[in-house]
Amino acid sequence: MFDFSDTDSGISYESTEDEIEINTPTYSLSITDPIEAVMKPENILENFVEVGGRRYLNDVTVKNYYYLPSDQKEVERTYDRNHIDKIIWGGNYSAPVSDKLSLGASVLDVGCGAGAWITNMASEYPVSVFVGIDIAPLFPENYPPNAAFIKCNILDGLPFPDNTFDFVRQAFVIICMNWQLWKEKVVEELIRVTKPGGYIEIMDTNGAFINPGIVSKKINNFWERFYKAGINRASGTDVIETFNEFKDKVIVAPIELRTLYYGKKAGRVGEALLKIILGAYRAMKIIFIHIMRITEEEFEQMLIDFEKECNEIMLSKTRYRAIIQKRSG
Ligand SMILES: C[S@@+](CC[C@H](N)C(=O)[O-])C[C@H]1O[C@@H](n2cnc3c(N)ncnc32)[C@H](O)[C@@H]1O
């Protein structure tokens, strides 16, 4: 865990109107190799399987391609990211729910991972109740008594009655999930389980680097190919447009954006963000190697060059929070 406070960054994290356009390339590509490596018949009874020194979820019922490892390294990375996000955004959430949380609200974290947000929030708001759901059973062993975790696949519907939660949030799930599946199977469920007048908040990344250098351009290109291969990383604008299709049920606020700067030039937050993104790339090593058709040595060199580039130019990308209120009547 990084041990510095909000005041250390030296960067002001202000909203910007910038959105990123993804140019879809014209070639097609299969990325099934890494997941096939995990889902071999001999592994059928295993919850997790190790590939290339990392542990992956081995669950044929997942339906979407979940490409990040489910292991201790990834748990630590998500706890660090949660901590930095709190600094960048000035809080764990942006929806206007603080009064409700202080008085006692019911809260759902969809795709909660190892529970960094839930445990943090449950300690901060002891009279509210927090439920985290995820397909990967990576939940913490110790957590506050007002928190609970349930293993489930969000593509099978959310296992709660209508109008259950005052606040429903989902973070960094869209970047990991087929966009079409999320649109078809998840959006209406998020609305259904939210109480009338309650809020939904979606946080995710806008993916591409802004004004990239030589190496970050290659990484942007990798993501375009990844995108083309069916792992969608929709922008915040797409999320807003999707919820706007349910205008009879919800009110959609203007998207909130933060620009993230990577590397030493952006102070200690920039250094922390660089460490977190390098961790994400390492977590995706087999996919990088497969899609970029590079060797392991070339991949390691690319990360060294990326780190150098981040420390030379002011490399940035944006993160968004979409806030949606369920109509009362
Ligand atoms: C990048 S992690 C984000 C975790 C957490 N929200 C955070 O911000 O640290 C994406 C999470 O989505 C979960 N996930 C992916 N597909 C899922 C599905 N179909 N049902 C439930 N959870 C899913 C993964 O297991 C993983 O924990």
Automatic annotation (TrEMBL):
Gene Ontology molecular function: methyltransferase activity
Top-rank taxon: Eukaryota
Pfam families reported for this sequence: Methyltransf_25
Domain Methyltransferase: from-to ranges: 107-198
InterPro entries for the chain: Methyltransf_25 (IPR041698), SAM-dependent_MTases_sf (IPR029063)
Alphabetized PANTHER family for the sequence: 2-METHOXY-6-POLYPRENYL-1,4-BENZOQUINOL METHYLASE, MITOCHONDRIAL (PTHR43591:SF24), METHYLTRANSFERASE (PTHR43591)
Stated name of the protein: 7843_t:CDS:1
Organism per entry: Paraglomus occultum
